[in-house]
Design goal:
By secondary structure, this protein is α/β, with parallel strands linked by helices. It has helices at about 15-30, 35-50, 60-70, 85-95, 115-120, 140-150, 200-210, 230-260, 290, 295-305, 335-345, 355-365; strands at about 55, 75-80, 95-100, 105, 110, 125, 150-155, 165, 165-170, 175-180, 190-195, 215, 220, 265-270, 275, 285, 345-350. It has twelve helices and 17 strands. Helix 1 packs antiparallel against helix 8 and helix 8 packs across helix 12 (about 355-365). The structure holds pyridoxal-5'-phosphate. Pyridoxal-5'-phosphate (PLP) binds near residues 83, 157 and 179.
Amino acid sequence: MKKNLTVTTPLMPDLGEFSQMLKDIWESKWITNNGQFHQQLEEALCAYLKVPYVSLFTNGTLPLLTALQALRVSGEVITTPYTFVATTHSIWWNGLKPVFVDIDPSNCGMDPDRIEAAITPRTTAIMPVHCYGKPCDIVRIQQIADKYGLKVIYDAAHCFGVEVNGKSILEYGDISTLSFHATKVFNTVEGGAMVMHDAATKQRIDYLKNFGFESETEVIAPGINSKLDEMRAIYGLLNLRQVDDAIEARHRVAIHYREALRPVQGIRFFDDMPGVRHNYSYFPIFVDAEEYGMTRDELFFKLREHNIMSRRYFYPLISTFSTYRGLPSATTENLPNATRIANEVICLPMHHELSEEDVDRVLEIVVK
Ligand SMILES: *Cc1c(COP(=O)(O)O)cnc(C)c1O
């Protein structure tokens, strides 16, 4: 049996360099609470991501929760069912009602044509997801938000380094959030961040992620604890040095997949979008069972038989989970595109360590 091909693998710093920096932390005895490396990582991320303000978090879920708190969102939040459960959970944990709208199959993001019909007098925010790092229709979403006076919080967990016409995708909306989980393009083991556009918001967020402490003797809001520690900050600083090479390696894998898959009947995939710097965070393909002659699940299990791990990401649709299926917006009739895409998608192995031979092994199964 050939070696196991994983769907992803974490970007990890050089152990020698990591140990060297650990010594600095040990000597300083400052291991968390806005330490020197936490500050350095925020600065380095601002420079790399080309954004003015970044606030680090301990994962990618807490900035979603905190963004809704910080913007005092209430009532209903329009969102997508085609995402990771953390998006919807963050709305629920704030005591808000998620309202699902369908996706546009051309980018798997929220379909702007469906947003207005979902707005009620209780709607106060839109929470779209740049799925697979592919930009949503940011211009139209903002137009709708402006027209109705809604906040926009982008779950940009997949978007590390993604740019549109030289500008960071994280610059759109009121707030964007990132995940630095081990499975993402850039990771701090567990970690995340929030990107905002002004110093006052950055200050408020920094209070909120530290229990709401403004000073030793004053708490301005019921905050949470989401402070990234110094160990993970140095892990992030070192990974940042190699993330461009990792994205370039992913790009080569994407080119290889596309060349081989283009002639295959019944398989669709995404090409690069003009003017967009992609990060190749995933390589989703969409299987039309009739044209391809095999269902998505048959292909998924066949890959597994050959020790190739792929991922049905995102399947099942969030609106079908028992927690959420009772919502009025969760019906299949309301979500035809998301339902179809969730039944067609497979994310093929995609990471910086895949060799050409690895990719050929996957293609041998998929290209019949
Ligand atoms: C990974 C991910 C999250 C959650 O991030 P964690 O760091 O795992 O908490 C949220 N939304 C999306 C779309 C994700 O892919």
